[in-house]
Every structure is written in C-alpha cells, then in structure tokens.
Design brief:
twelve-stranded mixed β-sheet; binds coenzyme A; 2 domains; alpha+beta; single chain; Aminopeptidase
Length: about 325
C-alpha cells in the first residue's frame, strides 16, 4: 500500500532517511547537523500521536519513502473558534523523487481530518518548498499569510546599545490586568492570518492574543519583559527558551514570541528597547535568539535590522475551509 499510517516505532525507523530531506525544520541553521534536525522532525511528527485524532502518514513507492506528514485536531484553536479545526504538519517530501509533489499525502491527511468533522485545516511550509506549495494550492488550500524569521547570533554580533525611553523590567503577577487590556488594544485588527481570513470573526481573532498573553504569564513563556512609562505599561515582549528543541538538537535557541506596544506609546522606540533589552537575557541561555512576524510587518523588521537581527527564512501558512 503506497500510503501507510505509521506508529511511533515505525516513524523512528526513518531517522536516517529523513536526514536527507530538504527544508526540515531548522534547515537555515547550519549549526544543527542533519541527523539532529531529523531527530527533531521525528519528535514533531510523534507529537501528532498524542494529540486528538492525530496520525502520521508515510508515502512509499517500491519501498522508497516519498514523504511523511502528521495530522491532528488543533484543540486550542477548535475550542477558541468553536469549530473543529485540523492541522497538517510537519509535512516533508523526499528530494530524491523529483516528480513527487506530495498531493496524495495531503489528500490522505485531509481525508483523515474530514472523517473527524474538521471544517478547517491549516498547514505551514517553508517558502522555498515550491513543489509542496503548488500541490496545496491544487488541493484547495489558499494562502493565509507569510511569516519571516530573523535571528540574532551571539557569536557574530555585538549586543546593541540603546538609550531607553522607558523603564524595563520583568513582569510580575500584578501586571496581568494591564497586560490583558494592552494586548487587546494592540492586536485589534492586526494583520495576522485569522484577522485577514473572512471565515474568522475579528473579535475572536483579537481574543486569541488576549488568551495568549494570559497563558504566557502563567505557563507558556519563561519570562515576560515589560516597558513602563510613568507606572503605566507601554509595551511587552514574551521570552521563550526552546527547551525541548534544544535538547533534541544540542543547539540552544530562544525566541521573543509575542510583543506589542500600546497605541499611545508608539513611535518612541519602546519596541526597539524591548528587542535590545531581551538580548542579554537570551545570551545567558541561548546561542541564537529568533523572532518571527508577518512579512508585511515592516515596523518590527526595521527594528530588528537596526539591532543586528538578520533574516533567516520564510514560511507560508495555508488555510482550507469547508466550501
Ligand atoms: C510594531 C510595533 C511593535 C512598533 O512599536 P514602536 O514602539 O512604535 O516601535 P519603535 O518606535 O521602536 O520603532 C521601530 C522601528 O519601526 C519603525 N516604525 C514604527 N512604526 C512604524 C509603522 N507604523 N510603519 C513603518 N515603520 C514603523 C520606526 O520608524 C522604527 O525604525 P527607525 O528606528 O529606523 O525609525 C507597534 O506598532 C505594535 O505594537 N503594533 C501592533 C502589534 C505588532 O505588530 N506586534 C509585533 C508582532 S511581531
């Protein structure tokens, strides 16, 4: 049978073959050797098996592995948007079979997710993976956003010096109320894939960020940096060390994940201050600090470039919605 559902044990057997695949997660980071990238991909694939209705498909031809993909229900998104939402990923194709575009693999995932009542499916792929992108478009997926990732390399770049226009400190539990309100103001009408997709309610898309900062304060983030002007929180940045990934790859990465500056405090360099101030904190814990945004968010990319962060990769997010 060309398409097979794989259990944990079988997936682990493809470690060596996956190492030759292109565009595995972390492919822009030459510091991570291919075998470690493959190990991390396998961990990501296996995560599907502990998620609701999760599975992994492998596509084989004459014993050759053409591609692998995971699929599952996204619990958080489904509860938040009150519809059954599925996710495909990671999905990777073998560079060996030049003619293979992964369409059958995508269709197998879709069939699986539709069986469990999914009304929506998303998948994120590197912008360079053109074969896969074409087959997603042919399968009925539409482009929902494009993200870019920048990285600050502590071995190559001096820490920047910035004159701060605000007091910077780590958040404390008492900041919660202010941070929730600030996040709502900051992300109302933001240019992310949910606000821009007419199938989603705008208010719910904004609420997602409010939940996100709330969860960051309790469990998601390792720390939250805030900027204060006159006892009022003007901006924030959540800091996350990639603990699991670092263990699998032996390479230490951390990310500035969610950030915003209140509309009343914009244009004063507050964001630039936050992105400079997080670097010493990251340097103690990581070799590289990363940040990700929508390609059209030129303001944050200007700040990153000014501070010494460099563009490393891009990813497209595709959505599929019941017609
Ligand atoms: C984007 C945002 C964080 C910028 O905050 P800020 O404190 O005003 O930014 P700064 O004052 O530090 O400016 C950073 C750079 O971006 C530029 N910039 C700021 N706002 C801009 C805008 N609307 N359009 C274009 N460039 C802009 C500034 O000129 C500055 O570059 P320069 O120093 O070379 O002049 C803020 O507008 C915001 O919270 N927006 C909505 C949420 C968001 O985008 N979050 C980040 C998600 S990754």
């Amino acid at each position: 049978m060309p398409i097979q559902e794989l259990d944990k044990k079988k997936v682990g057997m493809f470690h060596t073959r996956l190492a030759d695949f292109g565009y595995l997660d972390l492919h822009p980071y030459s510091q991570v050797e291919p075998a470690k990238r493959a190990a991390w991909t396998i961990e990501q694939l296996k995560k599907n098996l502990s998620a609701p209705q999760g599975t992994i498909f492998g596509h084989f031809r004459n014993g050759r592995l053409l591609g692998m993909a995971g699929a599952r229900i996204s619990t958080f998104d489904s509860e938040h948007f009150e519809k059954t939402m599925g996710r495909i990923g990671p999905i990777h194709l073998s560079p060996e079979a030049a003619e293979y575009d992964g369409k059958q693999l995508v269709l197998a995932c879709m069939k699986h997710l539709l069986k469990y009542g999914c009304k929506f499916v998303d998948v994120r792929v590197p912008t360079a993976d053109l074969k896969l992108i074409r087959s997603l478009l042919r399968t009925g997926f539409y482009l929902a956003d494009t993200q870019v990732e920048y990285a600050f390399r502590f071995d190559k770049t001096e820490l920047p010096k910035v004159e701060h226009q605000a007091e910077l400190r780590l958040a404390v539990p008492d900041d919660r109320k202010q941070l929730l309100a600030l996040t709502r103001d900051t992300f109302d009408g933001y240019i992310d894939r949910f606000h821009l997709d007419p199938f989603f309610d705008d208010a719910k898309a904004t609420d997602m960020y409010v939940k996100w900062i709330g969860n960051s304060l309790t469990k998601l983030a390792d720390a939250v940096l805030v900027a204060e002007i006159g006892m009022r929180i003007a901006g924030f940045l959540t800091l996350e060390v990639k603990h699991k990934q670092n263990k699998a790859t032996d390479f230490r990465m951390a990310e500035g994940v969610l950030a915003g500056v209140a509309p009343w405090a914009r244009g004063k360099g507050i964001y630039t201050s936050l992105l400079a101030e997080c670097l010493p904190w990251f340097k103690e814990r990581a070799d590289v600090a990363t940040v990700v945004t929508q390609v059209d968010n030129t303001a944050v990319q200007t700040a990153w470039a000014n501070l010494g962060y460099r563009l490393v990769s891009g990813k497209h997010t595709f959505h599929w919605h019941t017609p």
